[in-house]
Amino acid sequence: MSDLAIRADGLSKQYRIGTRRQGHDMLRDALVEGFGRLLHRNGRPAERADLIWALRDVSFEIRQGEVLGIIGRNGAGKSTLLKILSRITEPTAGRAEIYGRVGSLLEVGTGFHPELTGRENIYLSGAILGMKKAEIARKFDAIVAFAEVEKFIDTPVKRYSSGMYVRLAFAVAAHLDPEILIVDEVLAVGDATFQKRCIDHMASVASSGRTVVFVSHNMDLITRLCRTALLLRSGRLVEHGPAANVVEAYLAEHSTGTSDNLADRPRSGGSRARFTKVQLVDSSGNPRPAHASGEDLILRIEIHAEEDLPDVGLAVVLKTLSGTRIITGWSRESGFPVSLHRGLQTYECRFRRVRLRPGQVITVGLWMEANDVLDSIEDAMTLDVILSPDTLAVSTDRYQGVLLCDATWQRV
Amino acid sequence: MTRHAAPFQQLRTLPVTVPGNGQRPTVIIQPSRGLLRLDLAALWHYRELLYFLIWRDVKIRYKQTAIGVAWAILQPLLTMVLFAVVFGRFVGVSPEGAPYTVFTYAALLPWYYFAQAVTESGRSLVGDAALIRKVYFPRLVIPLAAALRPLVDFAFSFLVLIALLAWFGIRPSWPVLALPVFVALALLTALATGLWLSALNVRYRDVGHTIPFLTQLWLFASPVAYPVSLVPDAWRFVYSLNPMVGVIEGFRWALLGQSGPLPSALAVNAALVLVVLFTGLVYFRRTERTFADLV
C-alpha cells in the first residue's frame, strides 16, 4: 500500500461526439433542451447515441519509482487518461488515488507568452507548471544553461528562433521536480541534437527512482525507458505488463501483411491513378502475414488508373516505425519501364534476401509519378519482421539496429 | 536463453534530485458530487500563480502599447472631459458643491476599475483556454487574477485624482478612511459578476458578446455622469439595489464630502453581492470540471 504511487479504479470518461472539437454549445440549444425537458418530465438521460466512451473502466496500479509507458493507437484514450491523472479533466466514473506531488507535461511551452522575455517566461511558465517562485529562482541559471539561451534571456521570445523557443520551453519543464511525472509525447520537438538531450534527460529522470507515466508512439523509447506498459484500445485497457510484451501486443494488432483498403489512407497526389491494394506474398504469390528475416520480401501492388499513362515511375519504401527510411525500391532505378493502362493492374517488387532485425515492425510507403506525383501514401501497410531459420540466434532487441549483417570477429 | 545486458544500453545520465520521501500528499480523483466544495486551501496553495498571472497581464498590457501606463490615466481623464462638455455644459447637470470634473472623476475611478474587471474576468477563462486544456490548477485563479489586475490601473488613476483634488483645493476629511471599503465592494461586485460570466462563457460563447452591452447598460444605471438626485423617487429603491450606486456614492462621500449612501442601502448592496458571489462560486465549481473539455 505505502509504496503505491497511483491506483486507478474503473476510470471512465464519456464525451459527447463533437463537443471535443467544437467546444461550446449554443445558448439557444440549451434553452430549447431545457423547455423540452419541462415538457417531457419522464425523459431519462439514457444511453445516447451521440455519447462515446473515450475511456472505459480502466484500472491499474503504479508503484513508487516505476516507469510506466502508455501505448495505443490515436484515439485509444491515452491523452484522456493523462488528463484525468493530471486533474485537468474529471472522470465520468471511477476513481484514482495519487500519492505524491504530480507534475504533468502535456505540451512544451505551456503558458509561454510571446511578448515576454525569456527571463519572464521562465518565471511565468514555471509558476503555471506548479513551481514556487523561490524554486524557480534557485534553478534559473540551470534552466538558462540547459536551454543555451544566455545571450537572449532578456529578449522577447517572439524574436526567438523556433529551436530556441522549444529549448527554453523544455528546459523549464525539465526542471520540474515532482514525485510523479506525467509526460505526453513532448519529446518529438526540436532538432536532432536537442531531441537526444531531451530523451537522455527523460532517461535519467526515469532511472532516478521517480515515478513516471509516459505516453509515446515511439516503441523504441517505450522499451528503453519503461519497465511496464499499458496498452489501450478504444478506451479499454487490453494489456498491462512488462513493456516488451505490451509493445509486442501493440505491434501485433497493427500488422497483417495485407492492406486491401487503401482508399481511406492519408495520401497526396492527383486522381489519375491510385494504389488500391498492397500485399506481402511469397515467391509463388501466396499472401504472407509477416516477413521472415533473410528471405525475399515481395510486395504486390494493385493500381487503378483512370487513363492510359505511359512512362510511370513506381516506388515502394520500407521504413522503421519512427519513420527512418531503410530501403527504397524504385522502378526507374531498377531500369524497369512501367506504363499504366486504364483500369486495374498489378505489379510486383521483389527485394532479395532482406535481412532486417527480427522483432521489429516496418511500415511500407507507396509512391508513383508521371512527371507529377500521381499518388503517395506514407503508411500503406505495416509488416512484422519475424525470425527465420537463418536468423534464430540474433537479438530481437530493436535497439541493436535495424539491419542484420554478418559480422566476424578475430583477435589481431 | 539467458538474457545478456545489451551493448550501449547504458544511457548517459544527468544528476537528478529525488524529492524527499517524507509526507506524500494524496490526491483523490473522482467525479465530484454534492453542491459545494470551495477548496480555498488549494487556492491559497496557488497564490504565487495568482500573482504571476496578474503580473503577466500587467506586463503585456503596458508592453504592447506605445504610451504604456499613460493609458490607465488617459482613459478616465478623457471620459471626464467628454462628460464635462456634454453633461456639465449642455445638459446642465449640477452636482452639490463640487466642480463637475472632480464630481465625475470620483465616479469614473471606481467605474473604470469595475468595467475592466467585469470585462476581463468575464472573458478570462476563454482567453486562457490553452492553459486550461494543458495544466491543472484551481481554475478560480484565472477570473480572480483578471478581476484584481485592473487595480493596478486604478492605482495610477488614483494619483490623478489626488492631483485634481489638490488643484481644486478639496481636502477630504475622515470619511476618506472608508474608501477601501468601497473599493472592496466594487471588487466583490466585479468578481461576482465575472465568475458567472466567465463560467457561462465557456459553455455559451454568446455570453462573451453580451459583455460590452452589459457594462454599457450598467454605466447608465450608475450615477457616473449624473447625481443620484436626478433619479425619480419612484425608481430610487430599485436603483439603489445596484451595488455600483453604493460604491460611487461612497466614493463621492469619502472624497468630496457629499451626502453618502444610506447605511441600509449599503447593507442591501453588500448582501446582494454576497449572494451573487456565493451562487457564482457554486456555479463555477460545478461547471469547472468540464472546462477542459469545452473550452
Task: Bin the strand percentage of chain B.
Answer: under 5%
Share of helix of chain A, binned: 10-25%
End-to-end Cα distance of chain A: 57 Å
Quaternary structure of the protein: heterodimer
Radius of gyration of chain A: 26 Å
Query: Considering the protein shown, what is the CATH homologous superfamily of the largest domain in chain A?
Result: P-loop containing nucleotide triphosphate hydrolases
CATH topology of the largest domain in chain A: Rossmann fold
Characteristic key phrases:
heterodimer; A: about 400 residues; alpha+beta; Rossmann fold; Coagulation Factor XIII, Chain A, domain 1; 7-stranded mixed beta sheet; 20 strands; about 25% helix; about 35% strand; globular; B: about 300 residues; mainly alpha; 12 helices; about 65% helix; about 0% strand; disordered N terminus
Notes on the protein architecture:
By secondary structure, chain A is an alpha+beta fold. Chain A folds into two domains: 4-28 and 50-254, 3-Layer(aba) Sandwich (Rossmann fold); 258-400, Coagulation Factor XIII, Chain A, domain 1 (Distorted Sandwich). Helices cover 24% and strands 35% of the residues of chain A. In chain A, the strands form four sheets. In chain A, strands 11, 13, 15, 16, 17, 19 and 20 form a seven-stranded mixed β-sheet that branches. A six-stranded mixed β-sheet of chain A has the order 5-6-7-3-8-9, sandwiched between helices. In chain A, α4 crosses α5 (133-147). Mean pLDDT of chain A is 82; it is low at 19-24 and 41-47. Chain B has a domain at 98-294. In chain B, α4 runs antiparallel to α9 (206-220) and α8 (179-203) runs antiparallel to α9. Chain B is mainly alpha-helical and 295 residues long. The interface between A and B is large, with 64 and 53 residues.
